[in-house]
Hints:
Structural class: alpha+beta
Radius of gyration: 30 Å
Number of domains: 1
Largest sheet: 4 strands, antiparallel
Number of strands: 6
Strand order of the largest sheet: 3-2-4-5
Helix content: 40-55%
Order of helices and strands: HHEHEEHEEE
Distance between the termini: 105 Å
Amino acid sequence: MSMFRVRFRKLLALLQRSEKGVAAVEFALVVPVLLVLYLGSVDISQGIQADRKLASVAGTLGDLVAQTRTTLPVSTLNDYFSASQAIMLPFDGSQTSMLLTIVYVDADGTARVRTSRGANGATPQSQNATYPLPAEITNLARDNYVVVSEAWYTYHPVVGYVITTDIQLYKQFFYIPRFGQEIVIQ
């Protein structure tokens, strides 16, 4: 046997026993999975945060209006809309559409729009149009008023690698006016 073959066999035997490259190979196999998990968790956690902030926007808007005694100036309502946009930070509040609708439910349970105002592209409801309230709210508010606040936001994923499409978020809240009177927006 030649000297070259002997050295080659010793080298092969040495390489078969060596474990120095195992960690690098394992790391190369695991990194893509961990990276996808990390990027996905960033997008999901940001989406959850946007959804919670949108709930705060709709809830705050409706609650502020429901605390009004009888007359709500349009300028004050516009301030409520502006303040609600600030709640969305760090997300773009100017992209949050908001709609406030005051509905009267008669003794028969028919809900009709008294007034409606929108912000950031939300289309107000037509006056005297019927409004589809859930049965629970209709039964609770018979012969009374309901303040309905709605908000929409399109969540754009931060990374966009795992969640690749925009997600439409929507929240709706119902409030009975605190003082039991119609709230007139002037």
